[in-house]
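Holo prediction — cytidine-5'-diphosphate.
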Amino acid sequence: MIPVITIDGPSASGKGSVAERVALHLGFHYLDSGALYRLTALAARQAGVSLEQETVLQGVAQNLDVHFEAGNTWLGGHDVTTLMRSESCARDASMVAALPAVRRELLARQRAFRQSPGLVADGRDMGSVVFPDACLKVFLTAKPEIRAQRRYNQLIEKGMSASIDNLLQDIRARDARDAMRGASPLVQGEAHLLDTSDQTIDQAVRQILTWYRDCPGVRGT
Ligand code: CDP
């Protein structure tokens, strides 16, 4: 069985950076599942599809022409690496992600990332729905104010404009939508809780690697 580590948690909790580093350390593949929801939302916007048309959006998700290469993401032949990281795209993604037909459509695409020697997957429902048999499940979180500050730094670093107050409001709204929705809501479930409010990325990575080494059947990684 190919091992999977799932890292779920709310917006801007640092899942992406932590998951990528854990994957790099173990030589595992990495799945940024949020990217698929962002890309579905982006493709829908580009096609002029409203974000409430569930059946049409399912078709958009099914026909997603996406290509990941060397840290860049291509949608229908266009480099959307920066565009897909905007806050408006994140907001659209969380609306599209509430639709059960879209989630069902993206399931097989996500599971296809499970390849030897292993996978680190980050998102909201990686441990609860997509990879329920994961050998290690982590729920990564931090206080909303800290997450807003981290997202602010990230956006500024990418040359985008941002306001902490707006970000905090957006993050709270997305947290509520992700946790309250009927389809695959964000829940801690049986996952190990990791609050990174007072932790660096490296400390979080070390903690996850320690938990992973304690998993049954894992030795000397
Ligand atoms: O960076 P942030 O955590 O805000 O967003 P993301 O991980 O890129 O995900 C964007 C949106 O996709 C989230 O607000 C979720 O609503 C949704 N999502 C989801 O529903 N399930 C996942 N496995 C991953 C993301």
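READOUT: Strands lie at 4-8, 29-32, 66-69, 72-75, 78-79, 119-123, 136-141, 192-195.
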